[in-house]
């Protein structure tokens, strides 16, 4: 005889306590990838070669410096925000209680 019992599969949704830090980490990961690359090309093309009329070789070096500074700023901001979340700096204050006269 065939087994007609059904197997119950339990779906475990995302843990609500971990959504906030995960979302923050995802945002900073995207910033670490996109911000330095985009600022490199924008600063090289628009600022250094366009406004300051620097030769392309020097504009590459200056654009790379801008990208390195950007990645350090994003990384420092990520450490500050994630460290603050871990210590509970970002706790929401309770709403003020209403006094009844």
TrEMBL record:
Instruction: Provide the GO biological process annotations.
Output: vacuolar proton-transporting V-type ATPase complex assembly
Recorded superkingdom: Eukaryota
Transmembrane region positions? 21-41, 61-83
The protein's UniProt keywords, in alphabetical order, are: Cytoplasmic vesicle, Endoplasmic reticulum, Membrane, Transmembrane, Transmembrane helix
Q: Does the keyword Endoplasmic reticulum apply?
A: yes
What's in the GO CC field?
cytoplasmic vesicle; endoplasmic reticulum membrane
The protein, known as:
Hypp3873 protein
Q: Please give the organism.
A: Branchiostoma lanceolatum
């Amino acid at each position: 005889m065939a087994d007609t019992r059904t197997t119950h599969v339990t779906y475990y949704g995302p843990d609500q306590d971990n959504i906030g830090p995960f979302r923050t980490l995802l945002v900073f990961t995207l910033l670490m990838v996109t911000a330095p690359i985009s600022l490199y090309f924008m600063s090289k093309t628009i600022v250094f070669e366009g406004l300051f009329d620097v030769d392309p070789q020097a504009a590459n070096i200056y654009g790379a410096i801008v990208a390195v500074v950007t990645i350090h700023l994003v990384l420092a901001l990520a450490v500050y925000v994630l460290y603050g979340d871990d210590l509970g700096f970002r706790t929401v204050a309770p709403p003020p209680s209403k006094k009844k006269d």
